[in-house]
Amino acid sequence: MKKEKHDLVIVGAGPAGISAGIYAARYKIDFVVIGSNPGGNMTESYDVENYPGLEDTTPGHMLGDRMLNQLKRFGTNPIPDDIQAITKSKDGFTLLGRDTEYQAKTVLLALGMARNKLGVPGEKELEGKGVAYCATCDGFFYREKTVAVVGGGDSAVTAALYLADIATKVYLIVRKPELKAEPTWQDKLKKTKNVEILFETSVKEIVGTEKVEKIILEGKKSEISVGGIFIEIGQTPQTVLYKSIGLKLTDKDLV
Questions:
Q1: Does the annotation count 82 as an active-site position?
Q2: What residue range is the signal peptide (predicted)?
């Protein structure tokens, strides 16, 4: 196993990790940024309109690229590694990657969030076969097909808007009687004719043999035939590494 030693190791290559890297570079600190997903979940966003400094609506992947290029301008590129464990050592911390051991005086954790899953029959079995968690990543494969999006927040509504330009029809399955998304997104959704919203409806099962064929529902409809289902029901903090070094978390697993 290779070994590296740095004054600072930043774990996470999303906006927070990249921002920390830019500051570290400007202060000429010996550091590395480690993360297998440069730009983080933001790169999966359909459009970004609420980030300071953006004069125009910008796709998430473009904003992520700009942040990454800014970091590269300071001579640093994130290391595509996954940290498996962190332990305290005599002089700081030891971080174990896939094939590299990193020694650091200081560690900055910017781990972001992981996408929530429905936990219904068929979800795990058909993941990658019609079950997806990123419309901008996988939407292309559903051109001129019927798809469903699950969720009622910003990520679900923007996913439905993105897919509406690709798919023939989009069902938006919302467990509650109203949407939680920003009014701006809701206004755009109302003008999108090929999106049908199913309020007070839950997914009970995802059915298919080699790929998704239909969804069993409880609510406005009993089932719908779809070629794909995009699950956008929020995210949960990634806290395993925080807990491994004894950091105190709130009851919602936040630092």
A1: no
A2: none
